[in-house]
Structure formats: C-alpha cells, structure tokens
Amino acid sequence: MAFKLPKLPYDYKALEPHVDAKTMEIHYGKHHAGYTAKLNAAIKDTPLAKKKIEDILKKASKHGAGVRNNGGGFYNHSLFWSVMSPNGGGEPKATTKLGKAMAKSFKSYDAFKAEFSAAAGTRFGSGWAWLCARKSGGLFITSTPNQDNPLMDCAEKKGTPILGLDVWEHAYYLNYQNRRPDYVAAFFNVINWDEVSKRYNKATK
Ligand code: MN
Questions:
Q1: What is the CATH number of the domain that holds 37?
Q2: Which of 18, 25, 48, 91 could crosslink 186 through cysteines, CB 3.0-4.6 Å?
C-alpha cells in the first residue's frame, strides 16, 4: 500500500505573515509531494511497502539512501504541517503533562525557546530542529541533517519527535532569503501546542 500525501490542515495563506502562501504551496505541493512519490517508488514491491513509516525509519540506515531521504522527507513534513496552526503560538498550558515536562526539562519557556532557536540556527546547511520525548517522559532538543530525524537508528540522539522545524532553505528563502534567524523566530507564533501535547502524550504513555 502506497503512502499518501496527508491533506494540509489549513490553506496556503493561513500562516501568513509568518509563513507565506507561495512557500507553503511549493513546499507542500512540490517538495512534500515529491518525497512521498519517491518513497513509494523506492519501496514498491519490497517488504517495506507493508510497514508503518515509523518502523521503516527505525532501521533507516539499512534501507539505502532513497528510503532514508524520502521516508524521512515524507514523515518530517507530515509532522511539520500538523504542529503549526493559524491559531498557534503562545506557550504550552502549564497544567498539561507536556507543560509540566517542559517546566522540568527547560526551567522556563524562554529557556526552551533559546535552546530550540540555537539548534535551528546552528544546524549547518539543510536539516531540522526537534523537540523530542523520551519514553520516560523527559524532553530534549536536537537537530538532524538533511531529512534524517530522531526516530532513525543513525540519529545522534534518539527519541520521539513531537515538534519539528524545517530549516532547509526551501522552507524560508522566498520570504526570508538568508535570514534564517527571522524565520526561526516567526515559527514560535504558529506552533500548535495542542498537537505537540497530543504527540507527547502518545510518545510517553
Ligand atoms: Mn522541507
């Protein structure tokens, strides 16, 4: 069974001015659609075609570059769209399981923001910044190159990604050109903490 490009949960202009409509259209319609099609081509008529994407990624290093890059691209962008919302921003609710874990792991929201921004800003070239959960409930921030992610066996730090930020130039260049820090700063205005919270609960139950 082939993987399907998930429906975008809002329209292209919904995240403006933080993410512009043209970038959304190309990023979703060309890049994400491209990773999905290439993943499907790479696993066609192989045993991987019957597996869940998470299980494929857990052994990414064994499956070759086509599956690693396009499987990562498929998964990472599916997560990325879901953790943004036109009604996003603010801070995770302090009374939720996620809110409590954030307070424990990062002391303050500003400290979290600074560490996440640094991870996104210092990732050289193309890649992603992540907030991840450990099964035990702890949280940590990391970044990965290219379309890798922390589910992969080849990741430097492994955990379940619950928030991700795409720092490939294709994610921001039309609107921000070389100003990655401005794009990273704008991201905090659209984070969908309800979705991140759901992902945290699922990762730690
Ligand atoms: Mn991308």
A1: 3.55.40.20
A2: 18
